[in-house]
Amino acid sequence: MSSARLGLAIAEALVAAGIAEVVVCPGSRSTAIAVGLAALADRGRLRLHTRTDERVAGFLALGLARTRGAAAVVVTSGTALGNLVPAVMEAKLAGVPLVVVTADRPATLVGSGSNQTTEQIGLFGRHVVADLYLASSDDDPVRWLAGLGRVLIAARGLRTRNPGPVHVDVALSEPFLGESELPTAVKPLRVSASRPAEPVTLPAGARTVVLAGDAPPAVGRQARAVAEQAGLPLFAEPSSNARAGRCALAHYRNLLDTELGARIERVLIFGHPTLSRPVTRLLARDDVELVAVSDRANWPDPGGHVQQVHDAVTLAQVDDGWLDDWLAADARQSAEAGPAGLIQAGQLTGPWLAAEAVASATGNLVFGCSNPIRDADLAPIRDDPPTCWANRGLAGVDGVISTASGIMLGSGEPTTVLLGDLTFLHDLGGLHVPAGQTVPDLRVVIADDDGGSIFRTLEVADNRWFERLFAMPHGRDLASLASGFGWPTRTIDDADEVRAQLARPIDGIEVLVVRVDPSRP
Questions:
Q1: Which pTM was predicted?
Q2: Cβ contact 320:231 at 8 Å
Q3: Which pLDDT tens digit goes with each residue over 362-391?
Q4: Which CATH class is domain 337-515?
Q5: Domain made up of 2-171: CATH architecture
C-alpha cells in the first residue's frame, strides 16, 4: 500500500501548501498520485484539471499559477517529462511557482532497458529552483511530508526571494491502488518570509523615467504609482500592467532615439523589459543611471549597466516640464503617419488589430510573443485596461493558448488572447478540452498574415531563402483547423465586423481569424 500512501501524501502536502489547482495527464505510473488528488478534489479541497497532452498541461498549469499564486502538474514517466520542459523554462525566468510532479520507475530499473524508464532525476537541471526525490519503497510518510514541505516553500521563494518551478520525482512500485491513510495529520509548514527593505529615497534632479517591463499586476501598480507620485514619464510595455494613467506614453519607443530621449539621465526599471530595440539601446547607454526596483533575488540587467537595486523607491516630485515635454511629443506621434496612423485609419494591419483588442478587452488580455505584443506597444493608452499577460520570461511562441486557458480558469475572468498564426499553430492542441472539463471563456484572436512576418523587420528579410527558412507561409485555413475541435470560428477581413465580434461577451471558446497585411509599417 506504500504507493497509494505516497500518492495521498503528495496530494495532502499540495493542499497544505495552499496549492488548489492541479493539472493531471493520463498515465499508469502516476496512478497513485492522480487517485490521491481526485479523492481530495471530490471533497472540494482542490480543483483538478485534466489534459491529454503534457506540453498543453504544463502551460495550462503555468497560466493557473500566474493567477492563483502556484499550481501543480502531474505526469507519468518517460517522455512525458520532456514535454514539460518549455513551460518549466518559462516559469523559471518569469519566477512563477510551478510544481512539477513526475511519476518514476523504481531506481533499480533505470538503465535496465525496462519499458518507459529513463534518468528522470535532474532532468530539468538549472531550470528549477529546487527538486526532491521520493520513493514508495521508503514508506516513511513523515520524511515524505517534510521533504515536500521544504520544496513547496522553495517554489514560492518565501525565504530565497527566488520563486519558480520545482521538480518532485516520485518512484512508485506496484500495486498503485489500495485503501490508504496517513499516520498523522498533514499540517502546513509555516515559514516567515524574507522581509522587504524600507523604500529608498532617490535624490532629485536627474531627468528620470520609469520603465515597466513584463510584470505581474502588483509590480505594474507599483511602477505606475512611482511615476504618478513623482510626475515621471512612464514607458510601460503591454504586459507590464502599468500602461495606464496620466504619465503613460503610447509611443515612448518611437521617442527614445530622438533629442528628447537623449536627455534621459536616470531610468527606474520595474519588471522584465525586453520588447524593443530602442529600450535595449537606452539600457546600454553609459550616460544613464539605471536603478532596478525588484524584491526578487535576481533582476534584469542584460546590458550590465544597473548601478542600484532596491525593493522599493521614492523620490520627490520633479519639474512638471519634463513630463509635459514627453506628453506633448507623444501626442504629436499619435497624430502623425506610421504605425499610429494605421491604427487610426482602421486598416486591417497588425497594429490596428492590436489596438482594437486592447481597446475592447475586458478581464484578461494575453499576448503572443511575436508581432502582436509589439503592435500593442503602439496602442493608445486606456484608463481602465484589462489585466495583461505574456510569456515574456523566455518569450517563446509555444503554449500561448494553453497559458491563456489557465489564466482564465484561475482568475474566473473572460480572457482574450491575441496571437499570430504560427503561434496559434504551435499550440493548436490547447484548443482540446477533455469531456467533462470546464471550458474556459476564451476568445482566440489570430492575426493571420500567412507566416512569420516579424522576420521581415530583420536583415534576413532580403535573403533569397527568406520565405522558405523564416517566413514559412502556412497556406492553411486556420478557421477550419480550429473548427475541428468543435468551437465557433470565423474568418474576418472587415474592420466593422472585427469590432463587432470583439465587443460581444465571451462565452466558451471561440476563434476569430483576422486577415492582416503581412508588410510591417
A1: 0.94
A2: yes
A3: 999 999 988 999 999 999 999 999 999 999
A4: alpha beta
A5: 3-Layer(aba) Sandwich (3.40)
